[in-house]
């Protein structure tokens, strides 16, 4: 006995030391690099501000070496703006550039313009320049020969030459081995003559050759300023690409908006976490306190992994963490509910705890694995920030299973060994009230059908009212979105934005004012203007206009081509279909009954259609987060369904001969009812706080997520069990 108590004390000391150390590490970090410090977690562009642009490769069948060379050279170009900038390949024919920028100091449109559409770079001697110029002026296509092309340039860098009496700004060129040979031949033949550097159809510079250059390096001198030298060097570097690229999407986020998103989301998470811990203690007494300790460890572990593994945190990623905290409570609720049932059945506390963990294991594993299926589909088919949401949600699911099955178990057993065994501290499960869930199935089904039909009917209403069935956002329609933030004392209502701002934007961009969609954001004094796809020049003019004429404090932009939007629509449908099929197969395998899988998936379709109806009736914005919202609802709802199915399966093993199948299903739903309500409540609290305090881009996402949580609880209790019963009875009659 003394040994077990000593072991319990040691376990608790180790836990609290690790928890304290983890908290310290998360706050201050350790070592020279401050490893583990939360402040060092890399932030996505939506949280720190900056520019993201996606290019599409125009060359047919580019080789992997050409793509790699293009990415490498673009990365060197990006390094001039930020050491944290990233360039990476997406799919087979796209390259994305992400550059963190302080938009208060750097004009993101200037950067976007300089990145431009990396086209053709040519070095021409006088004779070939004349032919090229005639082609440009006359529209002819006479053949000319370039001295060098972009692929011959290895690097270009701005510099200052102080060797003379007057400071001279220069661009230092470095050629590839092949380029060095070409340039040596060309300069030897053109001493005293200019070499024209042409980028994307315009003459960037025309330096005169002083002497033959044979060492693979050259200097362009007599440039008027360092800024001009830097711009020319940048032009040469970005032009030195093996492939031609076309810009198809860009997004500019202001630094202020990102900072506000971080602070409000973190505060929302902290408040939600505190409320969940209080609720757990009120509902489950001492085990609720233990769960709060385990959840604290869970949060610390999450922060440390994000920091140590350098996982980029996005705004949807924060939403994923906050949602996963609510879901982490689920495993604890399942365990504690089982413990209470065992105590009510007459077991001692120690035996009840052991049985509670044992009986809860299969439900916890099945529920989390099915949720992981939806998350994996999101990671594979999602893009950009949605992948950030999927990464943190997946990490949260894995950590929640670890903390519930190992940390909570260790803490409970340790306190048991130290004498915390009073049943009153754990509570007893009350005898569940058995309602006629199966009997009321038709009523619930009709009610759901009315909501779904109303949602479908509103597709036609919306089409006649706003010209489209759903309020597709930029991601699904293509176009340009401009978000202007105004001073707090200068409020812009929808009417004021329509009458004062929209006509000026239309005139500046040369578009019809009637095509501009306007949306105001309550509480933030922001106005969002959605237009057809604008050029960079048009977008930059609108930015300047909003800041100079209408005194906007910050302007953010996003532009998406119709190509991207079409793919996103397709991905949304495929993601939901794939995840549903995979879940059906998993449930059918685990429960050895395809009827469990079919009824679960039909209930998921119900949940998706009800939330879809909310998007239709409320004309909510259907965009990239729509996919994440639907798949999260799918993953979350299936979790509650599996708990009920697990209880039905368990009760069938000990079914009394006098008990009908209908009574068994009703009893199983009643036994898991409190778990469904409590889990839904804790998750709802986390999401609700984020809805109230979060930034605009999260409000619609969290609103529909709250609706999905309520709908998921409803379908789990009122639809899935009765639906399985109905299918079971019909198939039994056919086989009889």
Automatic annotation (TrEMBL):
Membrane topology: Multi-pass membrane protein
GO biological process annotation, one example: intracellular protein transmembrane transport
The protein's name in its UniProt record: Multifunctional fusion protein
Gene3D superfamilies assigned to the protein according to its UniProt record, in alphabetical order: 3.30.1360.200, 3.30.70.3400, Multidrug efflux transporter AcrB transmembrane domain
InterPro entries (alphabetical): SecD, SecD/SecF_arch_bac, SecD/SecF_bac, SecD_SecF_C, SecD_SecF_C_bact, SecDF_P1_head, SecF_bac
Transmembrane segments: 266-286, 293-312, 318-339, 360-381, 393-420, 441-461, 572-589, 596-617, 623-645, 677-695, 701-725
Similarity remark: Belongs to the SecD/SecF family. SecD subfamily.
Keywords: Cell membrane, Membrane, Protein transport, Translocation, Transmembrane, Transmembrane helix, Transport
Gene Ontology terms for molecular function: protein-transporting ATPase activity
Cellular localisation: Cell membrane
Subunit and interaction comment: Forms a complex with SecF. Part of the essential Sec protein translocation apparatus which comprises SecA, SecYEG and auxiliary proteins SecDF. Other proteins may also be involved. Forms a complex with SecD. Part of the essential Sec protein translocation apparatus which comprises SecA, SecYEG and auxiliary proteins SecDF. Other proteins may also be involved.
SUPFAM superfamilies linked: Multidrug efflux transporter AcrB transmembrane domain
Domain Protein export membrane protein SecD/SecF C-terminal: 245-413, 547-729
UniProt main location, coarse: membrane
SecDF P1 head subdomain domain boundaries: 145-242
Gene Ontology CC annotations of this record: plasma membrane
Organism from which the protein derives: Wujia chipingensis
Pfam assignment, any one: SecDF_P1_head
